[in-house]
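Continuing the series of single-chain predictions for the mutant panel. This is the parent chain; the variants come on the following pages.
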Amino acid sequence: MSFQLKFILWCGFALASVLTAVILVILTITSARMRYKKKEIEKKDLFSKIIGASLAFISTVVSLIFAISLDVPMPILEHENGTEYESPHKVTIGSMDDLKIYYTVCRIEPELCDTENILTYTKPIILTESTIIIAQTKFWFMWSPIRKESYNIYNPSVPFIEPTSIEVDDKNLGLIVADQHRLQATILPEDAFNPIIEWYSSDEDIAIVNDGVIHAKAIGKTVIFAKTAIYDLATSCEIEVKEPPRVPPTGVRLNITSSMLEIGGSVKLRATVDPDNTTNKSVSWASSNASVATVSSNGNVTAIGPGSAIITVRTGEGGFSASCSITVN
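Parent structure:
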């Protein structure tokens, strides 16, 4: 049975379930109004409700069965695992039920890996270098699971040399949380055929890797693996992710150093803790004369009475301070 026919049947049974449920509600309301009438009518109403409930149940069960089997079929790619293809190589993508196919290609170079560039498949794809093809089929608003295949392409005009090993430029690496670092993988010997390299992390909660670019996520240790799609060559790099180093404050500044206010007036003081990447930016506020001016925990100064007061801000770490002179008329 084709996917399109399954979808039509599912829509039909779903519509039947809805209609049956509506009819059942109408029958229930009608029977409630007619309850004062003869018992024969009540028996007919009960029989109608049983029939309606049975039909609704059957339609719902059938709809669920069809819904479970309603997966959009994946596209079909001509591909044999572990096979090398001579350049140029033609790849045809098919669909079981003639559904629309979308695809993208990811070259061996990380900078050419563009999974956002989704194309509509209309003709065979010609490959001249090792490539990963990612494809999906679509029906209306539904997508199939992703189909991903690696194609190892070699140039027949160049003498073929089989690779013997793979290396990365770092075997041990220390990162801090939110750091990014690119690992460079090299196939040996240098003039050997370059198969597609696949990357993965032993603990993606600590760090993830995408085409050799490591993203440190949390404190801990993990291992980044680089493996060829064929020849079963692999290498690794041990990663230790540490917390960012503490940056102590070196001073604090205020946006205003003096201000004149009328009684009841206010001014907003803003404190800047230096340097910008200070770990602890907490500050506290104080007034030298609360009968003249008060200051809130977020730097709002309010004039209370005539006179002068000094508003002081102090860092929570290091004890650095800055002040603003307030005069109230």
